[in-house]
Amino acid sequence: MEIRINDLNIIGTATADGVHQFLGIPYALPPTGPLRFSSSLPHPIPFEQPFYATRYSPMCPQTASGSTGQPPFTVADGADIMDESSCLTLNVFATPDERTDKPVLVFIHGGGFVNGSASVVCYDGGGLVTAAASRGEPCILVTIQYRVGVLGFLSSREIGRGNFGIEDCACALRWVQQHIHAFGGDASKVCCFGQSSGAATVAFLMTCYPNERLFSTAICQSGVASIGLADAGYMQDVFDMVCDFTECPLGVSGEEKLKHLQSVPQDVLMQAVEALGQIFFSPIFDGVIVKESPQAALVRGDVPQHVKAVMVGYNEHEGASISGAFKTRGLVKQYIGMHFKEDIIHKIEHLYKVNEEGRDPRKIVSDICGDAMFAVPTRTTCRGIAKSRRTRCFSYRFNVPCHANTLSRKLGYVPHGWELPFLFNSSVLNDVEKRLGEDMAVAWVRFAESGDPNAGEDGKSVGVGGIVWPEYKDGCMVFELTKHRVEGDGVWRGEYMRFYEAKM
């Protein structure tokens, strides 16, 4: 397969299913040397002639694996190398189609801002574009990589406020705006969607670039932007410790410290961060790009005018992925004490019946985490956007256990991230699950096309799996395995939602 951009021939491949894929296309210059710890710069086209886009690029360097290790969340064969000199790339997937105005979905992976990769097997775009095309909704799918961890979000007085990972995503979206037409996509119909910290990144992009049309619709899956901004003092301590570990000379200027870290080999830098133990990286207030928490802006309904619709959702048991270690009541109380202010600890324990005999401690932690970190932020964000009356807002809850997931098989849970195999129509799904995945793929593509997941040909409302998905003010879509349904606001876990909202 071959396409042409600015006199450059880009050669991709066609899969056995007929999907045209172009992998590992650079969108930014290598962030090495003086470009390490700096804003990404667009990669000029042409590069080498022709460019063979036939394999995934290496992952952006990270201290943890870019996958969970459980299929389909494993890294594609040959893509588990880490190399900052060739990691700022994107992948394009499309089915053969004569249309030149296809809607475009751009996916931002999760990973807590510290790990992740666009080459994870689950994110293979062939399944999604094929599923949508089989229902008469052809599209283009783009998956992007961005700097994570120390290279993406390290901040200090010497470096400045490091939001490099966010800037990478913006740079990739500009590439899409400029070049997606060559693949048959319509730059005015771009939907940016992400999961977990990828969803938070979508929210950051909405609020950090209000005057730049990077996309026209947005989808936040299990994330919104409830994650807090990084603390400047904490990040300065991390910077100083990294300098010490990498043997930066004592007494040098801030400029010399920066030059030192820019010259340290990638592997040594990763070893330094690993030696420090569990370090949390996330975007930070800089007064230029990040001026406030995105959730604060969205709760006010402050959405850029060019973003015509936003979809926000979460899974039924978001907290199940972290709750397995909490096997005693004492550990549950320790978890509550670490995450909540002292004046409401006893109320939390009473609400979740922590002291009641027979209660599974793991289920309690799963519920607390799911409510506080996902369900409540989703609800408050949707309410704020809906109040603005300028931007359409849709909400969903995903309630389908996957037979390929251990927690789903044993306990019927729908944990964090496990809507993705359905949306991407992963090969781990059975036939019934794939039909649900087709419903989701079609809804996401229609949302990119028009800002309405129900809109079929000529804009007529045909619903999702036979069910009309209302705007948030009129209900939430609940994805079930064979029959979806609409649920009113505050019906699901209403007592818990009202408790948290009263304390906010």
Automatic annotation (TrEMBL):
Gene3D superfamilies attached here?
alpha/beta hydrolase
The superkingdom of the source organism is: Eukaryota
Q: Which InterPro entries match?
A: AB_hydrolase_fold (IPR029058), CarbesteraseB (IPR002018), Type-B_Carboxylest/Lipase (IPR050309)
- Where the record annotates domain Carboxylesterase type B, the positions are 15-474
Q: What protein name is recorded for this chain? A: Carboxylesterase type B domain-containing protein
What organism is recorded for this protein? Synchytrium microbalum
Q: What is the lineage of its organism?
A: Eukaryota, Fungi, Fungi incertae sedis, Chytridiomycota, Chytridiomycota incertae sedis
